[in-house]
Structure formats: C-alpha cells, structure tokens
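Marked as duplicate of an earlier ticket. Keeping the data here for the record.
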Amino acid sequence: MPRRLLKKLCPAPSALQQRWFLRLFGDRIADPRLWALHRRAVTCAFGAGLAICFIPLPVHMIVAGVIAVAWRLNIPAIYGTILLVNPLTAVPVYYLAYRVGAALLRVNPQNVVLHHSWDWIHSGIGPVWKPFLLGCLACAALTGLLGWLGLELLWRWRVTNRYRTRHPISA
C-alpha cells in the first residue's frame, strides 16, 4: 500500500478540528483510528462504502462521514469507495439494483421512460419504486458484505505472503 502517498494526501486530524463544518464531531474527528491504515478499519470502511453507494439519494458524503466517525472506520477508505458510484456509473448501478429488486419480487421489469414533470413523478414512478428500493437494499447488503470479505481475505493473503518471503520456512 502506498502509505506515504496517502499520508501526504490526507489532511492532519488537528487541522480538521479547526474547520467550522466539522466542529460538531468535536474531538472524535482527530481519533487516530479514523486515519490509520489498520486492516479492520480499512476493510470495514470499504464494505460500508460499497453499501452506501446504493443509497438512491445524493447524500453519500454525509452518510459516509457520519458512519465513519460513529463506527470509527477509516475516513479516506470510505470516501474513496463511495466515489465508485458517480454520475457516469449511477445509471447502470441503479438499473442493476432495479432489475435485482424486480427479480426478488418476481415482477416483470418495466421499460421506464423518464419525463421531467410532476405528473410523471406522481403516476410514472408508482410501479417501479418497490423493486428499485428492494434492489438497492439487497445490492447494498450483498456488495458491502462481499467487498468487506474480499478485501479482508486479500489483505490477510498479502500480509501472510510478505511474512513468508521475509521469514522462509526451512525444512
């Protein structure tokens, strides 16, 4: 892992306490566990970030910050992960979530044509909101769990591999 690069890019926790919009977190924002590259904090932040990506509202940054501080997860890892869903990837991700929700509810997916009007919001969103929200919830749980588990196993394999190369087992 490029630790030196990450340490250069990440702001100092003491500098963050001076920012007006972070004062509500108090001293918790300077907690070293939020900034250190420990396996548990990073892998859990990765899984939580993947789950947060499936929230269908543009509140990812706020939710990720609150969850990272509350659960003491690595802040750079959770923010880096939630950036996977951006304006370019949001449509395929949320369409996949809709298709998963439709499959779980055993309903036929409908072709949705977006119209920018209140009438469409009132009448056109009715048949698709249940499969969409269920799909978002299912995809969030599955990708969060698989992302955490995958990174956890990869991290452990890498540490074990590096240990074995430093300390060869003599027969």
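See parent ticket for discussion. The first helix runs from residue 3 to 9.
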